[in-house]
């Protein structure tokens, strides 16, 4: 591993609010990570007390990310990745999977969480042949994201756009659609879009737990119907098996493929 491309500003540590739970830190807690605070563990435990299956969803989402990136590298030949809403580093991050298969892969992470920024050094370690960079931006700023990403990625070449569990943080569905359209529209033919998010209408216990979480003071996360999640891929060519529970998207041999309230898919821009 090479030295990181940049060093995070130490002042970011001062911006971390530990008085309210934060989705990235709670997600990290469910994945077995240590980058969280008591308030996050309390919120995470309250959530799992209502819906223990959230841990399965969190880990299923991470496995889905690994499998889609593996497909993109090995079968689609993609070597550039724009991962928006990356969250805190855990195991099998985008650059680790991509560069483990193709060391020349280039990855740009996007997040606006100060704790993620404080951990940017961990994210920015890259293979010698490739590159890894971090952008401090919000998903609602697609033009800022694209302008900054172009410093590391050649956006005239096919690129994979990764939107994993981030669009639910955009309250208005039409705004989320607009963001996806703007980002995908800036990428050339042969690029790919990967989306996965919590789904509505599958598990009422999950929905109850999510409503409780949204009242906790944390930034709300909005579940969407499977049809709404599928609509993010309008105009693109879905890779089989289409938009399905993340556990059922090309599952590893022998792994359980139970139905979970988290749907995702991968599609190619024609």
Automatic annotation (TrEMBL):
The keyword DNA repair is assigned to this record: no
SUPFAM superfamilies: S-adenosyl-L-methionine-dependent methyltransferases
Swiss-Prot/TrEMBL GO biological process terms: methylation
Keywords attached to this entry: Methyltransferase, Transferase
Region Disordered: start-end pairs: 250-270
GO molecular function: methyltransferase activity
Pfam families (UniProt xref): Methyltransf_19
Superkingdom: Bacteria
UniProt entry tagged with the keyword Ion transport: no
Residue stretches in coiled coil: none
InterPro entries found in the cross-reference section: SAM-dependent_MTases_sf (IPR029063), SAM_dep_MeTrfase_SAV2177_type (IPR006764)
Protein name per Swiss-Prot or TrEMBL: SAM-dependent methyltransferase
